């Protein structure tokens, strides 16, 4: 009777799971498998019957010596992800720490979170005006103090950093929201005990806050890195083609152009799988580093 | 227990049914039109995918309504998609078996569409009509592998836009005829403030995306005597004298050896009367008219300057109406397109000719339209439209190999890299030439 009851419960559990399993199968598993199949073919995107199997040719193409995928595109993608995560994370750590010491914390969190709920297209366009070399506010400030105007998005040496700055600024709100939640989860008793023992603010921060915030930090870093490596819209809005030349071109933008502009769906899918492997490796490294540092909950 | 058992089974059955329904679909590349089964349909509705949205869609509507009221058996349903999304929409609809019966396509996509067998070949009577009634650049633009695939519509040549007031203020009564004149006039007109910011730009190329940079480049190269690619579309001509000289000219406008600031927006600047000369297509005159209002009288258009000042050359890009090779109602689609493009319905103009004039202030390239009193009057009173219409008689077509978009992307990125100091002129010539040839293999 007992085993019969358990079997029924199992059936019931699976029946409840079926909708979400079907959802994942249709919208995740099938597309991923299909993408992998496409990466082994030459396909123009118009007619499934015209798909031709080419084996690993697309992978060979993107790793060929004259390919721009590894350098500068994948290099740019790394610089973009690391740069924007570093900027947003450091800023968010400072802001969230300060917010927890202020009144109206909800208000401050909302203010910092505003860019995250604004469409990236709007943000990109606002920053295009700010960076405008002839009448943008940044250049107005520079010229008013006697400096020469800067071509933020037309100078290949700084164009990528100009986009990274916007991406970093954009990421602060989301990171602040999660980090402040993590900070509020640290029991106040620890700080009281440390104060009684004579620990100052910095000692408390490095000996209590940071260690207990590690799981939250790990979550913020992993999700931000993945987001940074997959970033596409901001570059599309701010430099349209990843220019000048390829100086701001990133992996996701190149995939989009390969597929939708050039009709090279096989090459685009191969790039997507390479990026998937890269993201997977980086995420694993982050997990290992944090586990060695004592974070066990992920 | 029984109730739970039944519930579990019912849920499972429902989910499986749902999954089967979700997984099934129109995967047989069936046409979009109604009445597309085996039985001959009495009435068909043909979908027509265009990039005419907003005001243009409204201007096209009366013509479609006229056809629909006169032809109850063949109803046309236009679907407007923004230009930036049109190619992607054709791609996704076609792969899902939902492609429109009639498509308005940009000739640059022709090679790609041909490779993927998207467009049907035009019937003989349509092909003959096109060959007999349109200029060579338009016929070539609406052809793939030498076979006509549809009716040319917007055939736009490139010319030199100049601001008469700025030229006059600098002491020039006429636009330049040669490249050397153009550069020396531009240097004389250019004005900068104390911080180095450009106040008035003598000559500027428009920038932003591949087409905006490459099409003027190809027009300049045509004026220098060569197309970008060989006639059989298998070789790059960038290493020819015309190619090298055109890239050299480009290196003298922006970049290390350039005479003006690359960050100054020539497109906006021309509209605000701050740019004296630039290269643009005919349709741009309509936009400038709206933006510049009274100042539009300052705008003049001249043929693209050439190396010697006597030869003429430019390019023209083409849009064309084509029919989906998968449509089961191709005959009906061609019947409609023939009416749209060759039947005189109003003011001695074809519906397409009438639409182009009303919507874009552009002259149709069809001979019968050009003979109509209304269009003749328009051409006589508007020297800008006349200039672009005349240019079609000597323009080369924008070449469209299967990898046209990639070829243009290579050229664009190399030019931008040269302009922003990432590579020298010689490297630009070599890199662009080699990379384009690689793509043409």
TrEMBL record, chain A:
PROSITE patterns: ABC_TM1. Keywords: Cell membrane, Membrane, Transmembrane, Transmembrane helix, Transport. It is found in: Cell membrane. It comes from the Bacteria. Belongs to the binding-protein-dependent transport system permease family. Its main location: membrane. This is Carbohydrate ABC transporter permease. Residues 74-286 form the ABC transmembrane type-1 domain. InterPro entries: ABC_transporter_permease (IPR051393), MetI-like (IPR000515), MetI-like_sf (IPR035906). SUPFAM superfamilies: MetI-like (SSF161098). It is a multi-pass membrane protein. Pfam families: BPD_transp_1. It comes from Paenibacillus mendelii.
UniProtKB/TrEMBL annotation, chain B:
Keywords: Signal, Transport. It comes from the Bacteria. InterPro entries: SBP. SUPFAM superfamilies: Periplasmic binding protein-like II. Residues 1-22 form the signal peptide. The keyword Phosphoprotein does not apply. Gene3D superfamilies: Periplasmic binding protein-like II. Belongs to the bacterial solute-binding protein 1 family. This is ABC transporter substrate-binding protein.
